C-alpha cells in the first residue's frame, strides 16, 4: 500500500519564508482515521520487553513524559480512549499500534551513492530518508541505528554528505542518507543545488515511507529546521522529528536542557499542524531512543506494506 495518505497535514497558511517555501500554498485534506487494522485492545503490554537493553540509557525527565502525553501521535488501528501508558514509547509522543513488529537490524549493506534522484535504486523496497541541518549528528545516528561504526561516514567537515546514499537493511528496506542543509563549508554549487536536488527526491520517490527530520535538541529551535518541516508538511510528506544530542547542553543555549528546547520547538510546530507529528528523543552517545525509533519505523513500514 502506498503511504501517500499522510498523517501530518499543515494548515494552509505558510508563515515560514525561506528556500523551502512553495511559490503558492497548498490546501490540505483532513486526516482520515483508519480503524480496520486490528483490535487495539490486544496491544496492552505487548511491546514492553522491546525497550530493555544491556545498558539502559537514562530515561527522559517526568516533565517530558507529561508533555508527550498531552500531544500524542496515534497510529491507525488505535483508539485514543484505549491508550495505556505502556503503549507510549519512552521519550516520545508515539503510540505503538498493531502494525509494530520486528525491528531488529541483523544486516546492513551500502548499495550506492546517487548524484540525482533518478539514479537511485528502482526496486519497490520501502525507504526512510534521513535529513537534517549540517552537524546535527546524522551520520552518528545512522551508525548508532545499525550498530556498526562508519557505515555512514562521520566527518568533522560539515556538508560532507553531498550525494544520496542508500543502505539496504535486512535485505528488505532502505535507510537513505541525504545531504544536510544549511552547511557553510560545502561548495557554492552544492549549496545552491540542495533545494532542487533533495526536493526532487522527496516529491518523486513512491517508495518513501517517511522522512526522519533530525533536530539538534542541545540548542534552541532554528528557523531553518522549522522551514524544512513546513515544506515537508505542505507537500503532504510524512515525517518524524528525531531530536538528537539529548545527552548534552551546549554553552550559549541560555542554559536550557534538551527537553526544554524540544518543548519550545513543539510549541512553534503546533501552531501549524492539525495533529501532532511523531517525535522522539535520541542520543548516539548513550543509545537513548534507538530501539524505540526502530520500533516506530517498523509500524510505519508494515503499514506501508499492507
TrEMBL record:
<dbReference type="InterPro" id="IPR027417">
    <property type="entry name" value="P-loop_NTPase"/>
</dbReference>
<comment type="similarity">
    <text>Belongs to the TRAFAC class TrmE-Era-EngA-EngB-Septin-like GTPase superfamily. EngB GTPase family.</text>
</comment>
<keyword id="KW-0460">Magnesium</keyword>
<keyword id="KW-0342">GTP-binding</keyword>
<dbReference type="InterPro" id="IPR019987">
    <property type="entry name" value="GTP-bd_ribosome_bio_YsxC"/>
</dbReference>
<dbReference type="Pfam" id="PF01926">
    <property type="entry name" value="MMR_HSR1"/>
</dbReference>
<feature type="domain" description="EngB-type G">
    <location>
        <begin position="124"/>
        <end position="303"/>
    </location>
</feature>
<dbReference type="GO" id="GO:0005525">
    <property type="term" value="F:GTP binding"/>
</dbReference>
<dbReference type="GO" id="GO:0046872">
    <property type="term" value="F:metal ion binding"/>
</dbReference>
<dbReference type="InterPro" id="IPR030393">
    <property type="entry name" value="G_ENGB_dom"/>
</dbReference>
<protein>
    <recommendedName>
        <fullName>EngB-type G domain-containing protein</fullName>
    </recommendedName>
</protein>
<keyword id="KW-0547">Nucleotide-binding</keyword>
<keyword id="KW-0479">Metal-binding</keyword>
<dbReference type="InterPro" id="IPR006073">
    <property type="entry name" value="GTP-bd"/>
</dbReference>
